[in-house]
Amino acid sequence: MRKSASAYERHQNILQLIAALESVRVVDLAERLNVSESTIRNDLEQLDKQGHLTRVRGGAVAKTPTFPSTTYVDQKIARSREEKSWIARWAASMVEDGDTIMVDASSTVMLIAQYLTDRRNLVVFTNGVNVAQMLSKEPTNTVILLGGILRPNGNALTGMISESVLQGYHIQRAFLSCSGVVPKTGFFENDLQEAQMKTLMLKATQQRIVLFDSSKIGKMGLTTFATLQDVDHVAVDKNISANAVEQIRSTGTHVVVCGEQTTRSYAPPQKAADTVRIGFANLSEHTSFSRDVRRGVEQAAHQHGGIELILADNQLDADVALKVADHLLTQDLDLVIEYQVDEETGNLIAHKFQQADIPIIAVDIPMVGATYFGVDNYIAGKIAGVELGKAIQDMWNGEFDQLIVVEQTRTGKLPSTRIHGQIEGIEEILSKIPTDKIAFVDFDNTTENAAEVIEAVLAHLPTSAHVAMICFNDDAAVGALQAARATGHIDNLKLVGQGADRRLRMEMRRKQNALVGATAFSPEDYGQRLISLALDILQGRPVPPAVYMAHFFISPENVDEYYPADTQDTL
Q1: Torsion of the alpha carbons at 46, 48, 52 and 58, rounded to the nearest 10
Q2: Mean pLDDT for each 10-residue chunk of the chain (571 residues)?
Q3: Both 411 and 436 in a single domain?
Q4: Do 212 and 334 sit in the same domain of this protein?
Q5: Which of 33, 56, 331, 489 has its CA at a distance of 20 to 30 angstroms from the CA of residue 303?
Q6: Can you say how many angstroms the Cα of residue 158 is from the centroid of all Cα atoms in its chain?
Q7: What is the rounded distance in angstroms from the CA atom of residue 530 to the CA atom of residue 363?
Q8: CATH of residue 75
Q9: Which residues contact residue 272 at a Cβ distance below 8 angstroms, ignoring those fewer than 6 apart?
């Protein structure tokens, strides 16, 4: 067996790999360097603190992405780089595992790639050579190059391609940029063939998104490739003028204004509605569930009309959530929707908004004085516990060696009742579980941390042991499955999740029998109900103190019935 390298040698190897590849994955590094995944996670955390790389879910990326270099590309990226990064970060949040997307060869779109290192199984159509090289480094991605003539700058392929090339593909969204934009005229390009390419890209895609920094407004080029009415969203940096925002909105296009901390979403104007300003502080843009919630809120605000949405990211961090709240207090809001994870911090945030006489809706984690919306915790837990009990009865004759409970104590007492519900659900089918058979594990609400702490517990159990597992949410469940595969326990594991988010639904379609299923929280439906609830509050209609989602159980047997595979990831 090959001897493991020292910490110093590992760090040097990691830095050499990230310099060459721009992004690395924990699982790949662990195999390459002959150490555990938890050791690699610790290495990456240290290197991040030292400023050598940027830690992301599942791995790390280069501190400053080193795109395949040409003078032309480097110069374009250097222009308005910070603003382009804000826009690229928002655009990447629109992409999930398994999506099919179209991207062009622009410098702004190239920056999106650094935020997609944790996405898997993407199908990417592009005419950008550099973009293709970056996204093809993830082996599960499929990258398809369009065009045939390499431009002199060495980055873009151009040339006439027929519409038949793209027929038969379900391309969900296109991300394009432009050389200039004039609201009354449209989007400009300086190269005729590239403009023709972009027109075809837009025509072949369901959702069309154009990204540009504010310096492009008012600039013209050789030819237009689309009007404002031809696209669904434009995303621009916060330096855009209020007048320019209104000019773009007046064309019927949704405008997203990106800043370092917050993102504003401006729906097209509605004649019959007075505009209200609603703030939404999201749990995190690094979890699939909360990204689905945020997208739903954006969609609902757009559909209702008359809503200016100010978005922010709490980053699963109590201190960040407090800073976000302070920033939102300066935005002249009519109402705020707060989605954060820490019970104690939530009550401090609630007090801030109550002092400012701003009504609050608390998502999934209760806050004193706020209207609660989200999970009916005990019921959701009980549903999953009963199904796990049935699986143990059927597969193991009602016997198991260890129950691992993956909880998150900082969320407070009410969310913890979903854990109690799961335990009582199991006991309803089987019998009282002896305390010496239960191991409690606390995690920080990330899949990566769940994998690390669960792997440590499983390492002390023989692979022949029958292990049952209940989880606070799907981040824990996905991490548990990763840990079980890494330690060889996957064949003797029975597990249930909470949420049934898109990642766990993908797991249900795998050929393995460890995942019994998950209680569905339907994050894709949060948005409509949250916006309707917000408008009821603002219009003085009576609302209950708590509004719950309806829950049902998703399993490998019924997942395609509730979430057909060909439509589950569309917006």
Answers
A1: 110
A2: 59 79 78 82 85 80 56 51 89 90 89 83 89 86 80 62 64 94 92 85 92 93 92 94 91 90 81 77 88 92 88 90 93 95 91 95 94 96 97 95 93 85 96 94 87 93 96 93 93 95 88 89 94 96 95 94 62 33
A3: yes
A4: no
A5: 331
A6: 32
A7: 9
A8: 3.40.50.1360
A9: 306
Write the CATH number for 398.
Answer: 3.40.50.2300
Cα–Cα distance measured from residue 294 to residue 282, given in angstroms and rounded to the nearest whole number? 7
Give the side-chain half-sphere CA count within 13 A for 464.
0
Q: In terms of DSSP bridges, do strands 233-237 and 142-145 run parallel, antiparallel, or are they unpaired?
A: unpaired
CA distance 337 to 534: 8
- Contact between 362 and 371 under an 8 Å Cβ cutoff? The reply is yes
Provide the residue range defining the domain that includes 14. Answer: 7-62
Last residue of a domain, one of 62, 91, 109: 62
Element (H, E) at 533: helix 526-538
Phi, psi of 563, rounded to the nearest 5 degrees = -130, 80
Beta pairing partners, 264: 257, 310
Is beta strand 23-25 parallel, antiparallel or unpaired with respect to 59-62? antiparallel
The DSSP H or E segment spanning 536 is helix 526-538
What span, in angstroms and rounded, lies between the C-alpha atoms of 212 and 214? 6
Q: Let me know whether 72 and 214 are in one domain.
A: yes
Q: What tokens were used for 150?
A: 């390499």
Whether residue 361 contacts residue 337, with contact meaning beta carbons closer than 8 Å, is answered with: yes
Query: Going by C-beta distance under 8 Å and a sequence separation of 6 or more, which residues neighbour residue 286?
Result: 56, 57, 118, 315, 316, 446
Q: Residue 42 contacts by C-beta under 8 Å, 6 or more apart in sequence? A: none
Asked if residue 369 and residue 355 are part of one domain, the reply reads: yes
Residue 179 lies in a domain: yes
Same domain, 270 and 381: no
Question: Any idea of the CA torsion for 200, 202, 203, 205, to the nearest 10 degrees?
Answer: 120
The beta strands (E) that lie in 344-466 are given as: 360-363, 371-374, 402-407, 438-442
Number of domains in the chain: 4
Q: Is residue 568 part of a domain?
A: no
What is the token pair recorded at 377? 């915790």
Residue 564's H or E segment, with its range, is none
- Measured from the Cβ of residue 27, the count of other Cβ atoms closer than 10 Å reads 16
DSSP 104: -
